[in-house]
Structures are given as C-alpha cells and as structure tokens.
Design a protein that fits this description.
single chain, 13 helices
C-alpha cells in the first residue's frame, strides 16, 4: 500500500507540475457556468437578433432549474470528455516514450500498482474538475432560475462522473498500447460509438455505459435510475485497468 501511495503522490505531483490540475478544472468551471448564464440571457440575445421570426419571443419560455442543470452537465459529455482524454492520453504512452516505464518496471513495483496509481490520479483530477464545475453551474442556476434538489444534483453528477471515468479508463488502456494522440483518438471513437449505438437503439443498448448521461438528465427531471449502465460502466473500468496492466509489460512503442 505504501508503494501505491508513493506512486499516486508522484502522479499528483506531475499533475501539478504539468498544470493539469489547474487547466482542466478551469475549463470545467467555464463550461459549467456558461450554460445557466447563456440560458438566462437567451431572451435578450434573441431579442437583439434581427433574424428572429415575428412572434417567436412570445412563445419563448425560460427552462426550469433542473432542465438547465441537466444541460450544464451535458456540456461535459462532449467538450468535457475531449478535455479529459487529452489530459490522460500520455499517462502511460509518455512513460514508455521517455523510458520511465522501464525504470519503474525495474523496481519491485507491480504493473497493476503503476496503472492503478495513474488511474487514481486521473480520477482525482476528474472529481476536482467536475465538483468545481457543477458547483459553479448550480450556483448560477439557483441564483438565476430557482432552487435545486441538492441530493438529486449530487446523484446526477455522480452518474455523469462514472461516464467520464469510462472515457478516462479507455484512454488509459489505449495509452498502454499506442502513442498518446492515437490513444485519445481511439478512446473518443469508442465512446462516440457507444453513444451513437445507444441513440439509435436505446431499448437494446440501455445497459451500455453510454446510457449514463441520459440517466443523469432523467434523474434531475424524474428521479429514476436503473442499475444496468452503472454495472457495465464499473466492469468496463475494471477491464481497462486490467488490460492496461497487462499491456504495460510491453513497454516498447509500436513501430
């Protein structure tokens, strides 16, 4: 356990030195507060536009606080995933390209410990970024739109965090096999593929982790969840950690 903690501390120190612990939360905060602000001032923006059809503003209704919060979380399903994959793509690929992986493997440290430490560090960055982003979004939503059920917001954010963690875990898996940009690309393609499959066949793919964003929005609106996507997400994360641990033994970059 002490070796794992030492590796985790090393990864967190690297996150600070590379400013990843700063710029990722900053982006998440900006994404979070933009949605309630844009929604609140949308009527003024549309009124100032010369292309709005006559009578359109009469039918415009301000969304409720829960709907705005769901939209704010939805920002993390696109730009948020991109930011996280870019921040994770060199976690193992960078170690292999610099030769650090060989030095680590020469020590009495198991590949599982190396991967788990990197996964935990990226998970920590994700949690910090998401908590700050959701806090900013919730604050402005409450100030501009109305009250929120904080327990529901926390649960919905947890579901979204699980989906984002799937993307991070996929990036870590591919990072143990490919170069950084390729790892990010494959992880994004796989996440997008799951999302596309769920949007085209929602009833048949309701168990996929890609159902978590929709479940998060549904929780804010209706308060209902199912366990299938959460179970498959946990299994996917465990499989990614196990796969990366096996692949890290082959620490040479592909030709």
């Amino acid at each position: 356990m002490s070796k794992l903690w030492a590796l985790y501390s090393r990864e967190m120190l690297e996150a600070v030195r590379s400013y990843k612990l700063i710029w990722i939360p900053v982006v998440f905060i900006i994404l979070g507060i933009m949605q309630p602000l844009v929604t609140f001032y949308m009527a003024d923006i549309l009124a100032a536009s010369s292309n709005v059809p006559a009578g359109f503003m009469d039918s415009y209704e301000m969304p409720g606080a829960a709907a705005v919060m769901a939209q704010a979380l939805g920002q993390y399903g696109t730009i948020g995933i991109l930011i996280l994959t870019l921040g994770t793509m060199n976690s193992l690929a960078g170690e292999r390209s610099s030769g650090t992986a060989e030095l680590l493997m020469a020590r009495p440290v198991s590949p599982v410990s190396i991967v788990v430490a990197k996964w935990a560090a990226n998970f920590t960055v994700l949690v910090i970024a998401l908590v700050l982003g959701v806090a900013g979004a919730a604050y402005y939503t409450v100030q501009l739109m109305g009250s929120l059920a904080w327990g529901t917001v926390a649960a919905a954010s947890g579901l979204y965090a699980l989906w984002l963690l799937c993307a991070v875990s996929l990036t870590l898996l591919f990072s143990a096999w490919l170069r950084g940009p390729a790892a990010a690309g494959f992880a994004l393609l796989l996440a997008a593929g799951m999302s596309l499959a769920h949007s085209l066949l929602p009833s048949r793919t309701a168990w996929l982790p890609a159902a978590l964003p929709g479940m998060s929005a549904g929780l804010l609106a209706e308060g209902s969840v199912t366990g299938g996507p959460m179970i498959s997400a946990v299994l996917l994360i465990v499989a990614c950690i196990a796969g990366a641990s096996l692949l890290i033994r082959r620490n040479k970059l592909p030709n």
